[in-house]
What does this fold into?
Amino acid sequence: MNRVYACFPGGKHKALTLSYDDGKTQDRRLVDIFNRNGIRGTFNLNSGLFIPKYERIDPSEIPELYKGHEVACHTVTHPTIARCPLPEVAQEVINDRTWLEAKTGTPVRGLAYPNGSLSRDIENLLPACGIRYARVVGSSDSFALPENPYRWQATCHHNHRLMELGEQFLGLFKQQYLYLMYVWGHSYEFDNNNNWDLIEGFCEMMGGKDDIWYCTNIEYWDAMDDFSRLRFAADNSFVYNPNAADCWIRVNDGEPVRIPAGALVNL
Ligand SMILES: [Zn+2]
It folds into this structure.
């Protein structure tokens, strides 16, 4: 019987993604740094806070500024949602989605919890609001894949061991594992702490690597969901990919194999 391993798109075994909150004007500089290095990420926006005193980007910039990245929810008004009635939480999420979707023209299915606030009831509510994953705060110091999409903790905040963890991640070579590095923060923190050189150095160090898949947050989940829908023969002698996207697998520790969208492939 064939032994099959999931791969990330492109047959890679490492993925890097980032997540930045609040949509302040410093996102312009951050996105430019990402784009110059082929780094990709997710930007979590509050549709109700685009007013001058909060120093946010102009909503008209959204489609062009975040092109190639993901725009995700951060609720309409950034409340500490664990203190709110659940119907209000649902509206904060759904109304944010609706507004962001009108701006981006794509389904918006991610969330970063505002103020890192969540509860079991909120986790359980989110799938019905069309949310596929939700990011908490803090640092896991880990490259392991997340188990609970609705309590997704990043590897690190950018002020927490960023370069050290980045170097560790670059050094990972064991193809029998999938590794994920996930960094989060707020772009205005680089102004506050005067440390733009940190994220510039990180992106330069991490960009352009053949064994890393550079993805947005939702692309990570979509790829894992696509893999879970692959239909394997009982003995893994063939596989059918019912998805709209190609999938990648490794068979018996060989080179990665592409399973084209909609195709049946003999293994
Ligand atoms: Zn925030």
The first strand starts at residue 4 and ends at 6. Residues 224 and 244 are 13 Å apart (CA to CA).
